[in-house]
Amino acid sequence: MEKIKLLDLNIKNIVADAGYESIDNYEYLEKLGYTSYIKPIYFEKLKTRKFKKDLNKVENLIYDYEENKLFRKDGLELKFLYSSKNGKRQYFFNPETQKTIGYNVKFRMLSKKSQENISSAYGKCLRMNRSIQVEGAFAVLKENMKLRKLKVRGKNRVLREICLFCLGYNLNRLIQRGKTNKKGTTLPAVSVVLLVGVAGVLYGIVRTILSDTWKKGIWFCGTGTVLTVLALLLCAGWNNTAYYPSVADLQSSLTIGNSCSSPFTLKVMSYVSILVPFVLGYIFYAWRALDLRKISGEEMQEKDTHAW
Length: 308
Prior knowledge:
Blueprint: H1 2-6, E1 13-16, H2 23-32, E2 35-38, H3 49-53, E3 62-64, E4 69-71, E5 77-83, E6 89-94, E7 99-104, H4 105-119, H5 121-144, H6 155-180, H7 187-210, H8 217-237, H9 256-259, H10 263-273, H11 276-292, H12 297-301
Parallel strand pairs: 1-2
Antiparallel strand pairs: 3-4, 4-5, 5-6, 6-7
Helix pairs in contact: 7-8
């Protein structure tokens, strides 16, 4: 953070995971004038019914700043015992559980403020961007590049090893971008597929409605439907975007990568997908064979031949 401050960058918001929540980090951000978007450690548990009903949890206690008193939600007052040497932490006695509780007033106040920040609409957007931009890179380093444990000791050696992995990650991204296009995005191609599919469906429907003799609408509508669905699936899977964002926890949003089955199941389905063109060819052949010879009125009147 000190190096970022020296670079004179216009950074106002700090987004971090629950592992960075501490009174030192909160006070440091407050001192430098940053807005904290740090996820509290018990942020997920705070939403559960069991956690909310536990009146003895420190997170559920109510502190009176004027009289230095601590209460439960049902009104039970906890007896004040003493303060720490630096005065930042107060200790209270719970008469129901017969246990001593440490309560850091400044930490609870800053943690509550950070919780309000990440629960806002802007905070949710920041957390989603962090999950997409940062967590994805960490996942590739840990899973694909097997960076589970560092093999060296010492800050300089650790920094060199991490930089080498990051260099390899960036080179891999650069190669992948070169395979798609110079801008590194495949969305224009997907957009073309989507437009062609929608146009095919609309053309097939409108032409069939306007013309009584035109009978080929199924080919345009069928092909257009396949292209449209394919474009929607590519939007969700090609760029590893979250097709079902989670409101409770953005890091738990569903993507193609974390919502698919095991590697064995994916391998089997890959082999099965090879049969899809044959299935489509069979459907085309069967429909074509049925459509070549029309059913006549005489055949409709026959009683013992067909059950129309």
